[in-house]
Specification:
The complex is a heterodimer of chains A (263) and B (412).
Chain A: H1 3-14, E1 18-24, H2 30-39, E2 47-51, H3 62-73, H4 78-89, E3 97-101, H5 103-109, H6 111-121, E4 125-128, H7 140-145, E5 149-150, E6 152-154, H8 163-168, E7 174-177, H9 190-201, E8 208-211, H10 217-226, E9 229-232, H11 234-241, H12 246-261
Parallel strand pairs in A: 1-2, 1-9, 2-3, 3-4, 4-5, 6-7, 7-8
Helix pairs in contact in A: 2-4, 2-12, 3-11, 4-6, 9-10, 10-12
Chain B: E1 18-19, E2 22-26, H1 32-46, H2 49-63, E3 69-71, H3 73-79, E4 83-87, H4 98-111, E5 116-121, H5 125-137, E6 140-146, H6 147-152, H7 154-162, E7 166-170, H8 177-190, E8 195-197, H9 208-216, H10 218-231, E9 239-244, H11 248-254, E10 264-272, H12 284-287, E11 289-293, E12 295-300, H13 325-333, E13 337-342, H14 343-357, H15 363-375, E14 384-388, H16 397-403
Parallel strand pairs in B: 4-14, 5-6, 5-8, 6-7, 9-10, 9-14, 10-13
Antiparallel strand pairs in B: 1-2, 2-12, 3-4, 11-12
Helix pairs in contact in B: 2-4, 3-14, 4-5, 4-9, 5-7, 9-11, 10-11, 14-15
Classes of the chains: A alpha/beta (263), B alpha/beta (412).
Chain lengths: 263, 412
């Protein structure tokens, strides 16, 4: 049982929905980023999605692209991203960390080396955007074997015929992408999302968390009402981009978490 | 041709879109169903005679195929060695080989009921070809082009706009071809229902590398019968040479000869300022290592941490940090040889071609030609080299003028 499984068991017992927050590792710099990440659990975040910076984030909108560029320009690397997780783990051994990013930096490191290092650094799961089920042999299966969750994205284009394939090797939770588009773009509509979550839940016992296009506490609540939780990324990163102090960023995160938890 | 299929170099990709370990389908889940339906549609079209009849008709009457195979007599004489032929794909409608592939993809898009076409472009040749065919069929066309390339390829930007396309300058990342491809993918993931992504080279997720290769293979197929006409029945080229950015004109020339052991195959990458540690080049095979980008595993220019590096080349059409996965495989198995040519060498070949043959070549095939000028003198007179003159140089005259220190006044 990973920290992710344990977290959902607790949430289930207390009847609460999950709130997942995404931040880019090393944005705007290593120290500030670490301070923000350390503050997330206190702001009500149940699961941390830690972005691994990449030069070519094809599934991301301008906000997260720019965050990645800021991090890379500040000298962020895969090693430093793992270091950030390790430092977070010094004070927190329960909040799950999911690393989210693209395959090339991991492939470049070598899959087995990466998995060893990620596990050691206290990473619990992976969301790798450019690895669909067709490429499961690359990282998904080795990751599960190494004891890390591999969280798959399901999307509005994942039809009924394809859904079982998407769910087959998923673990931890299912991340439903609420819109066809990139991160931080169109607004998610809970009326559209509800039936889709039900469709996915018919095929799996895993929790279904919904992200992309959630920007406000109200949306966070509306989405959490029809799913097992909500994810916010770009709206938080946007606060960091604007240079807001850490306490203000965390206050904003808390409002989003409260939204989800009130569902 | 070998009788034994297992010894063939022409059977790839496998059902997972792999050429050896290269290729694949490294895309987000949103795009995966689209790619699968494209693959199914292409598989259907491949064996449908009416599809190829439509292609043949357009190739003949719209593009002007077959393009000539031209014996470059003065160049041959000047170099004093091998007999040099040029495959004149620069004479195609729109001035490059790109339209061979665009026609195929747009006909497929029409069969799939898609009404909006998106494309990425570097030098602008693929963008112009896409805008052209969209105009012909009355389809909406959106072209993503790096802001830097918009600046250095102004004539092509204007051409696309004349043809009714919307050209979107890409400023994300560093504003180059790879960023244009990122933004095209972002558009596609957003507009999945009505949009068809017309990729301009033999890269991207399966089935694009195989599909684009198949459409471009008309180049090599024509060379086969044209050379037999010129040199006698059964005569194959001894060496074929083509420039490589993504590698579509090269794949189109090479593919029909892969199983002819006696044909020497040479791909020419852009060496920029020189293939060295400074990475001021676009030679993915000679200066990169395998990685995953834009839907496929292939050789990439990248740093130690797997971050993608910007290429550098005087030629906007070669300025891409990756290369088609089939080239990566041909490189690793040793069936083709890959070399690099610097900006300076390409410029010299460009000028040589102008004055000796009366052909103003694009900077891309100037790289191939530069390699020909290196190898031809040492080869015997009965050695036949076919190089792919894959584009004409009108678009490049401003760049070349600047490089040669010739001032060209641009009126406002």
């Amino acid at each position: 049982m990973t920290r992710i499984d344990a977290k959902f068991a607790t949430l289930r017992d207390t009847g609460k929905k999950a709130f997942v927050a995404y931040v880019m590792a090393g944005d705007p710099d290593f120290e500030t980023s670490l301070e923000i990440v350390k503050g997330l659990p206190g702001a009500g975040v149940d699961i941390i999605e830690l972005g691994l910076p990449f030069t070519d984030p094809m599934a991301d909108g301008p906000t997260i692209q720019l965050a990645g560029q800021r991090a890379l320009e500040g000298g962020m690397t895969l090693n430093r991203t793992l270091e950030l997780a390790r430092k977070f783990r010094e004070d927190d051994d329960t909040t799950p960390i999911v690393m989210m990013g693209y395959y090339n930096p991991i492939y470049s490191r070598g899959v087995s080396t990466f998995l060893e290092q990620a596990k050691e650094a206290g990473i619990d799961g992976l969301i790798i955007v450019d690895l669909p089920p067709e490429e499961d042999d690359e990282l998904c299966l080795p990751a599960q074997k190494a004891g890390l969750n591999f969280i798959r994205l399901a999307t509005p284009t994942t039809d009924d015929a394809r859904l079982p394939k998407v769910l087959e090797n998923t673990s931890g939770f299912v991340y439903y992408v609420s819109i066809t588009g990139i991160t931080g773009s169109a607004e998610a509509q809970s009326a559209d999302v509800g039936p889709e979550v039900a469709r996915i839940k018919a095929g799996t016992n895993l929790p279904v968390i919904v992200g992309f296009g959630i920007k406000t506490p109200e949306q966070s609540r509306a989405i959490a009402e029809v799913a097992d939780g909500s994810v916010v990324g770009s709206a938080i990163v946007d606060q960091i981009e604007k240079g807001k102090p850490v306490n203000e960023v965390l206050a904003f995160v808390k409002s989003l978490a409260d939204g989800a938890h009130s569902a | 041709m070998p009788d034994d299929l297992f010894n063939s170099f022409m059977t790839g990709p496998d059902e997972n879109g792999r050429f050896g370990k290269f290729g694949g389908r490294f895309v987000s889940e949103t795009l995966m169903p689209l790619i699968l339906s494209l693959e199914a549609e292409y598989e259907k079209a491949k064996t449908d005679q009416s599809f190829w009849d439509e292609m043949d008709d357009l190739w003949t009457h719209y593009v002007g195929r077959p393009s000539p195979l031209y014996h470059a007599e003065r160049l041959t004489e000047h170099l004093g060695g091998a007999k040099i032929y040029m495959k004149r794909d620069e004479l195609n409608h729109t001035g490059a080989h790109k339209i061979n592939n665009v026609l195929g993809q747009i006909i497929l898009a029409r069969r799939m009921g898609k009404t909006r076409i998106i494309a990425e472009t570097g030098a602008g040749q693929h963008g112009v070809a896409t805008a052209t065919v969209c105009a012909k069929f009355g389809l909406k066309c959106v072209v993503y082009m790096g802001a830097h390339d918009v600046e250095r390829q102004k004539p092509n930007v204007f051409r696309m706009r004349l043809l009714g396309a919307e050209v979107i300058p890409v400023t994300s990342g560093r504003g180059t071809l790879k960023d244009a491809m990122n933004d095209a993918l972002r558009d596609w993931v957003t507009n999945v229902r009505d949009t068809f992504y017309c990729i301009g080279t033999v890269a991207g997720p399966h089935p694009y590398p195989a599909m684009v290769r198949d459409f471009q293979s008309i180049i090599g197929k024509e060379v086969r019968w044209q050379l037999a006409e010129a040199e006698g029945e059964g005569r194959l080229p001894d060496t074929v040479v083509a420039a490589i950015g993504g590698g579509s004109n090269a794949m189109g020339l090479f593919y029909p000869f892969l199983d002819d052991d006696e044909v020497n195959i040479i791909g020419v990458e852009a060496g920029g300022k020189g293939v060295n540690d400074k990475m001021e080049h676009c030679a993915s095979l000679t200066g990169g290592r395998p990685g995953v980008l834009h839907g496929n595993r292939t050789y990439l220019l990248q740093d130690d941490d797997g971050q993608i590096l910007e290429g550098f080349s005087i030629s906007a059409g070669l300025d891409y940090p990756g290369i088609g996965p089939e080239h990566s495989w041909l490189h690793d198995v040793g069936r083709a040889q890959y070399v690099s040519i610097t900006d300076k060498e390409a410029l010299e070949a460009f000028q040589l071609c102008c004055t000796l043959e009366g052909i103003i070549p694009a900077l891309e095939p100037s790289h191939a030609l530069a390699h020909v000028t290196k190898i031809a003198p040492d080869l015997p007179a009965d050695h036949v080299i076919v190089m792919n003159m894959c584009g004409r140089g009108d678009k490049d005259i401003f760049t070349v003028a600047a490089a040669l220190g010739f001032e060209m006044e641009e009126k406002d």
